[in-house]
Amino acid sequence: MKRILTGVAAVLALVAFGAKAEPFKVAITVDDLPAHGSPVPGHSREEVARDYLAALKAHKVPGVYGFINAVALEREPGTKAVLKLWRDAGYPLGNHTYTHMNINTGGLTAFEGDIEKNEPVLKELMAGQDWRVLRFPFLNAGTDPALHKGIMDYLATKGYRIADVTISFNDWAYTETYNRCLTKGDAATIDAMKVQYMQGVKASIARSTYGSQKLYGRQISHVLLIHEGAFTALMLPQVLSEFEAEGATFVSLDEAQGDPVYSAVSAHRGEGLLIERQAREKGADIWAGAPADVDIANLDTLCR
Ligand SMILES: [Zn+2]
Fold first, then answer.
1. What is the pLDDT of residues 97-141, one digit of tens each?
2. Is 102 inside a domain boundary?
3. Which end of the chain is more exposed for a tag (fewer CB within 10 A), N or C?
4. Exposed, middle or buried, 43 (CB in 10 Å: 0-12/13-18/19+)?
């Protein structure tokens, strides 16, 4: 009996010192389908999508929403195949606006038009299923309060819900750097990027779980935002393994959004990271003592 108690105490001590991850749920969502960033040297959009889906399936990740910008079907004919692959994998599609518009610069009327221009493809590929889920491009939901209220009223009328985000590791910042390094054939820099990328993954998990504990006193169901780029496709098997090692269970967006934090009153729903936003709204400082984030400023200078 004494030995068992000692064992329990040891486990509790490990948890207290953060040596063992606390379990949490996370939904994975993928933005900018079917064509994130510039065309990838030596890799087709379909190839990127197949790699992506293979990793998600290998880790049995359920209900992964792909948020689409259908303008890509005009710019890169043939990319509709990517959206079909996503659907064939049993995953849903949602709205990320037609041209990836920033509501702050586009304004309300143009932004609504951009949402609607994206809908025919969603209707066609999601026949009979719920595609009325919006991810705001740049996680900008209208800085001006009147603009934000305008879009919220519009979305409510149209029956849309919003896909808020709680974890992001700035994977988008690697996209063009990777393309440049592929063009140059700079394998050493790509290897260094992989190391930095995984440091960012670990830091973002640590920060978001830290912030959740501090703000809510528990682990909320998280939502991860990643982009359908070639570098994230390359790293995704490691990323998913890292999440599992940190205590994550993969759930669908629908299940994650069943957590009451997603329906709590918020003056700027859809804006930025949910935990940071709700902390601001409560006047809480949740980042004191938090694990440091990884600086990505160097990425813009690499492989020039
Ligand atoms: Zn996007």
1. 999 999 999 999 999 999 999 999 999 999 989 999 999 999 999
2. yes
3. N
4. middle
Ligand 1 centre distance from Cα of residue 259 (Å):
24
Nearest to 49 by CA among 64, 248, 128, 185: 64
- What is the 11 CA–ligand 1 centroid distance (Å)? 41
For range 68-95, the mean pLDDT: 97
Number of domains in the chain: 1
The enclosing domain of 133 has a CATH number of 3.20.20.370
Give the tokens for residue 276.
């940071």
Q: Is residue 8 part of a domain?
A: no
32 falls within a domain: yes
Q: What is the distance in A from the centroid of ligand 1 to the CA of 65?
A: 13
Domain of 132 in residue numbering reads as 21-301
Residue 97 lies in a domain: yes
Q: How far is the CA of 136 from the centre of ligand 1 (A)?
A: 8
The pLDDT tens digits for 258-269 are 999 999 888 899
Task: Name the nearest CA neighbour of 65 among 82, 48, 90, 45.
Answer: 90
